[in-house]
UniProtKB/TrEMBL annotation:
Gene Ontology BP term (one): carbohydrate metabolic process
Glycoside hydrolase family 31 TIM barrel domain: residues covered: 338-688
One family name in Pfam for this protein: Gal_mutarotas_2
A Gene Ontology molecular function term of the record: carbohydrate binding
Protein's UniProt name: Glycosyl hydrolase family 31
Organism in which the protein naturally occurs: Pontibacillus marinus BH030004 = DSM 16465
The Glycoside hydrolase family 31 N-terminal domain, residue ranges: 172-292
Ranges where the Glycosyl hydrolase family 31 C-terminal domain occurs: 697-782
Keyword annotations of the record: Glycosidase, Hydrolase
Iron-sulfur keyword on record: no
Length: 883
């Protein structure tokens, strides 16, 4: 008889054999479901449930029903009005034999709430507030850092003498905001000047703090209720695909592998939001949480969080400022963002179909022949799909699980798929490409198949306790999903982690530059346990960070920082281990739109170094239109990558040449080539802006809301963004469109490719043929590019990130101009323009200076003190020092 009260603890996919609700409250009607295995279809059986609370035992009949194609026995246990433990079990008789299940139990949860705040203590570092509650004899303490961002609640008495709050309102001034206690302690308000950030709900129906606990004092969940004015808007919360602003939504934070069509589900949730009222709030937890942004009630903000603790402790960080300041404070608190190596900012090439040396070399040769630059090549189908660290077709002596193979221990036959892995790495490096290999943190379940080395590794892994464990202390096997029944590596175990990476050390030794760290959404069940004492409550969300951080440290320590991981999943602090991509999506315009939103929401959640599988990776190849439009947007994205899933009847590669071959439309090649070359042209700018963004703790790819928060017209704009400080990008994301409405914020904006000038604020309908993307430069900007001898965008300059063909300084001057700009090679240019018509530039003498004609304010331009010659072109002037 099969019954699991919590199922797999998956909030999106309840099992047919679980309890509903999983954690009953007093008064809830409780249902239980079970399956009986080993009974023939023709056998008639009766299943009943016995329920005991106190001395009372009831017998409840079950009803046989069909759910999701399975026969399931359902019983209603009724509701429970007391806190006493409830026990229940299933019984049946099969062929005259009585069968009894395990005994299950739960303790009903009761809701308690904060009544009023009645006393306070104002210390040097902390303000304490004490309140009485609906839980008889229990008090609740709120605390606020006076010079920091943290506030929270606890039931643990701080051991201080508090003063009574009288009948009058009381005000307390902290460094960043003030607190007022109103209505004799019944209301709390956090504010600065005239702006109220957080405040109690005005009616008693929603207490500021509520929580659920059982009779033992075990706290299951805490809930905060705040008033939210109708004009308040909310952003952030990690990588979200369905929309950029959330008022009216209820969104949870649960790391999840939603294959395609993610909606509000995500691989990278972050319990942090930015409010249009000038603050950001970070819920400091790894546990499951839910944010109700005026979803159930139009003026209530509610935040619920699982606690799973014998006592109540809950903390927030409250950050005050404009959106850029708020995100910077958040990343400072959760981990400084890390700048990837410069080669990560070139175009990437990838496919799940490149399963042998010859194919990889063929793809490299093709991209070189077509003058389509790439700086990174990702190989997914390289391993034996059992150990995930041995190349396919390698020959070797099977070793005990505790021993390690070095590269010299393997033989790579000529007939094999990978006859010379080290030679291949050398070949990629000689062609200016970095090599990224796919990884997954599991010991794969092979059903009845055997793989001697994998079997030895697994036996040793289990013997040493290197796996995640279930509640009984046995190796945890994943109950659902992608790698069902596989073991999961426990990266909180330092000995196990060392063992894991010793097996993979030879990969770095032969020149692998990083890892595509896929998956990580694998912890199901609150009772799973980890070496460091954590449980599934903690590790469902935190596990991908532990996994990826281990790989990131492994690669970057070996390569002295010149490495990265490319990851799908993550949680708070993921910005410390770049980079990430948006997971698995279809090749449709809808998915394109959703991926753009995902990138912008990630940036507002601190995760800046982000990319996506341009034009999607799932299903048949994208149309040429979708492929080109996606490449245009990806060229102005932190990571530019195409990728495809496994082979089908026809070649599914998202390479431009395969799409051209499949469709007969050569524009797939010419269009992608232009934007891949443009990416290399802009690489000095991209790296410089990425470096500035990393230092500042801000995203490279910013919503207009982040830059113009006082302009309410930008709140709902999800299809325009700023790429760095100087460029505004407005991609075409609708099929069949060759024009779109663009919003120009206050200031002057110059079209990057035509030098047309628009003065904002205004909406303007702009044309964009299939080969064009609207991109605008903010007037006053100065940036560096790497152009061909023809000094035109999109021309081939190769993929070498260490040299210039021609360094070009693009200047869009204001009357007074004083700027310093730098590049990825450590060069610096100092620019000073005066009102008397002289522009002085100090920097590389071979630099060309390009200024749009309509903006050229200068009658004289000097480079390093030497007067420049001038060439007039259709829309600009070029200045240079004659050789």
């Amino acid at each position: 008889m099969h019954h699991r009260p919590y199922g797999h603890d998956n909030p999106y996919d309840p099992q047919v054999f679980e309890r509903k609700p999983r954690d009953p409250e007093v008064g809830d009607l409780v249902y239980v479901f079970s399956q009986v295995h080993g009974v023939g279809k023709s056998e008639e059986i009766d299943v009943h449930v016995k329920v005991q609370q106190g001395e009372d035992i009831r017998v409840i009949p079950s009803t046989l029903k069909e759910f999701q194609g399975d026969d399931v026995w359902e019983a209603s246990l009724g509701d429970f009005e007391t806190l006493d433990q409830v026990k229940y079990w299933f019984e049946t008789t099969v062929k005259g034999k009585k069968v009894k299940s395990d005994i299950y139990h739960f303790k009903p949860l009761k809701k308690h709430a904060l009544n009023r705040i009645h006393s306070y203590y104002e210390g040097k570092e902390t303000l304490w507030l004490k309140g009485d509650t609906t839980h008889k004899g229990k008090s609740l303490y709120m605390y606020f850092e006076k010079e920091g961002s943290q506030f929270g609640i606890t039931m643990d008495a701080p051991g201080i003498d508090l003063l009574n709050i009288g009948h009058n309102d009381m005000n307390f001034s902290l460094q960043n905001y003030s607190i007022t206690i109103l209505e004799q302690g019944n209301k709390v308000k956090l504010y600065k000047d005239e702006e109220i950030y957080l405040e109690s709900y005005p009616e008693e129906m929603f207490p500021l703090v509520e929580w659920l606990q059982n009779e033992d004092g075990f706290v299951h969940q805490v809930c905060w209720n705040f008033y939210s004015p109708l004009e308040e808007r909310f952003f952030g919360l990690g990588e979200r695909y369905h929309k950029l602003e959330y008022r009216g939504d209820e969104i949870d934070c649960y790391v999840y592998n939603q294959y395609r069509d993610q909606g509000s589900r995500t691989y990278i949730p972050v319990p942090f939001y930015i409010s249009s009222k000038g603050y950001g709030l970070h819920l400091k937890t790894d546990h499951y949480s839910v944010f109700d942004f005026a979803h159930h009630f139009s003026d209530r903000l509610q935040i619920r969080c699982d606690v799973a603790s014998p006592t109540l402790n809950q903390r927030f960080d409250l950050f005050i400022g404009n959106p850029k300041q708020v995100v910077a404070l958040f990343t400072e608190a959760t981990g400084d963002a890390v700048l990837p190596p410069v080669w990560a900012f070139g175009p990437w090439m990838s496919s799940n179909n490149w399963d042998r040396d010859s194919i990889v070399r063929e793809q490299v040769k093709k991209t070189n022949e077509l003058q389509i630059p790439s700086t990174v090549l990702v190989m997914e189908q390289w391993s034996d799909e059992a150990t995930y660290y041995i190349f396919n077709d390698a020959e070797y002596e099977v070793k005990p699980g505790n021993e390690v193979h070095r590269y010299e221990d393997y033989q790579f036959p000529e007939w094999g798929r990978w006859p010379d892995p080290k030679g291949l790495m050398d070949y990629l490096h000689e062609n200016g490409l970095k090599a990224i290999l796919w990884q997954i943190p599991i010991q794969k379940y092979l059903n009845r198949q055997h793989h001697p080395q994998k079997d030895n590794d697994e036996a040793f892994m289990i013997e040493q306790g290197y796996t995640v464990k279930d509640e009984s202390g046995n190796p945890y096997r994943m109950p659902e999903g992608w790698f069902k029944e596989s073991l999961l590596m426990d990266f909180t175990n330092p000995d196990g982690t060392k063992w894991w990476f010793d097996k993979r050390q030879y990969l770095l030794d032969i020149g692998v530059d990083g890892f595509k760290t896929d998956g990580g959404e694998f912890v199901f069940g609150r009772h799973t346990t980890f070496y460091n004492g954590s449980t599934g409550h903690d590790m469902r969300n935190q596990y991908p960070n532990d996994y990826i951080e281990s790989y990131y440290r492994f690669a970057t320590e070996h390569h002295q920082g010149d490495a990265l991981t490319f990851s799908r999943a993550g949680y708070t602090g993921a910005q410390t281990m770049p980079a990430h991509w948006a997971g698995d999506e279809r090749s449709t315009f809808d998915a394109f739109r959703n991926s753009l939103i995902a990138g912008l929401s990630s940036g507002m959640s601190g995760i800046s170094m982000w990319g996506w599988d341009l034009a999607g990776f799932n299903g048949d190849i994208p149309t040429v239109e979708l492929f080109i439009r996606s490449a245009q947007m990806a060229a102005f994205c932190p990571i530019m990558q195409y990728h495809a899933e496994s082979k089908a009847e026809f070649n599914q590669d998202r390479t431009p040449w395969n799409i051209a071959d499949r469709t007969g439309d050569e524009r797939a090649v010419s269009g992608y080539r232009y934007y891949a070359n443009l990416r290399m042209n802009l690489l000095p700018y991209i790296y410089n802006e990425a470096e500035k963004a990393t230092i500042a703790g801000n995203p490279l790819m910013k919503t207009l809301f982040m830059e113009y928060p006082s302009d309410t017209k930008v709140y709902d704009i999800f299809d325009q963004y700023l790429f760095g400080e100087d460029l505004m990008v407005a991609p075409i994301i609708e099929e069949g469109r060759e024009e779109r409405d663009v919003y120009f914020p206050k200031g002057e904006w110059i079209q990057l490719f035509t030098n047309e000038c628009v003065t904002g604020p205004c909406f303007r309908k702009v044309k964009a043929s299939l080969m064009d993307i609207p991109v605008y430069v903010k007037r006053g900007s100065v940036f560096v590019s790497n152009l061909s001898q023809e000094l035109c965008w999109g021309a081939f300059i190769g993929n070498d990130t260490t040299v210039y063909t021609i360094p070009v300084l693009h200047i869009y001057p204001l009357k007074k101009l004083r700027k310093n700009v730098s590049d990825h090679l450590g060069n610096e240019w100092k620019i000073q323009g005066s009102e008397n018509g002289i522009l002085n530039v100090d920097g590389l003498e071979e630099t060309r200076i390009i200024i749009p004609k309509d903006l050229d304010l200068y009658n004289k331009v000097n480079m390093n003190g030497k007067q420049c010659s001038k060439i007039e072109r259709e829309t600009d002037f070029v200045y240079f020092i004659k050789a």
